[in-house]
Design a protein that fits this description.
Elements (H helix, E strand, L loop, with lengths): L1 H7 L10 E4 L2 E4 L3 H4 L4 E7 L12 H7 L2 E8 L14
Parallel strand pairs: 3-4
Antiparallel strand pairs: 1-2
Length: 89
């Protein structure tokens, strides 16, 4: 779905890469398993409620949330999973 949206908005995808380019800007779209061990300046995590829960370990949501070195955005329309809900004071 993300790739289709980028294409409709004019982003170009070079052959054999996960990168999309538009006006000198680059966006990399990866599945979580492909991002393990990598870090990025900015990361956008979409719909964390759809990530599978893993009993006894942090899992793919944790991996997604910890890839950013500077900026992290979480986009959701469903309630956030328990571990990342804002605290109510």
């Amino acid at each position: 779905a993300v790739s289709n949206l980028l294409r409709k908005r004019g982003w170009a995808k070079p052959v054999l890469t996960d990168s999309w380019i538009l006006a000198g800007r680059t966006v990399v779209v990866l599945l979580v398993d492909d991002a393990r061990g990598l870090e990025f300046d900015g990361v956008v995590v979409t719909e964390p409620a759809d990530f599978p829960e893993n009993v006894g370990r942090q899992g793919v949501l944790y991996t997604s949330l910890t890839r950013a070195t500077q900026d992290l955005a979480v986009i959701h329309s469903k309630p956030l999973p328990r571990g990342i809900r804002p605290s109510s004071r």
